[in-house]
Design a protein that fits this description.
Length: 149
């Protein structure tokens, strides 16, 4: 799975798949036998793990959008904070990666483990590697969502 897009004239999103075809140096067999190990590795690449304190969430590509927010009825990950919007941000799977899309009033901070914190307000950011997400304010003393891809 590569992306989900809404095609012109439709109301539903259609799945777009990336096809890796054989190179000129390989034989041109349309069927490839994969081991269970190879299939497991492929699935692991399209998995996002989120955790808040002792609660852990595993998000697969086909389980997006994954909603983070204050609305208990709508959100997959409920945030009990006055700084959180009802539908604060979403994690989607676009073009082979997980992307955090903020559409909140107070914004979202993404702090990758190997880079400076990024402030998002009505913007999006790809989640790669490891890091932390905070809702409405920088990490100091706030609700911290850790992530790992």
């Amino acid at each position: 799975e590569f992306d989900r897009v809404q095609l012109k004239g439709t109301h539903e999103k259609s799945l777009i798949y990336r096809l890796h075809w054989e190179s000129a140096t390989h034989s041109h067999n349309a069927t490839t036998v994969m081991s269970v190990h190879d299939i497991s590795q492929q699935l692991e690449r399209n998995k996002l793990t989120l955790w808040v304190e002792e609660d852990q969430y595993t998000v697969l590509a086909d389980q997006t959008p994954f909603i983070i927010g204050r609305d208990k009825q709508k959100a997959h990950l409920h945030v009990d904070s006055n700084l959180a919007s009802r539908d604060h941000c979403r994690i989607t799977f676009q073009r082979g990666k997980f992307v955090l899309v903020d559409h909140s009033t107070n914004g979202t901070y993404v702090n990758p483990i190997d880079a400076e914190a990024i402030y998002l307000r009505r913007a999006e950011y790809p989640l790669t590697g490891e890091g932390a997400i905070t809702i409405g304010q920088p990490q100091q003393g706030s609700y911290v969502i850790h992530y790992n891809t």
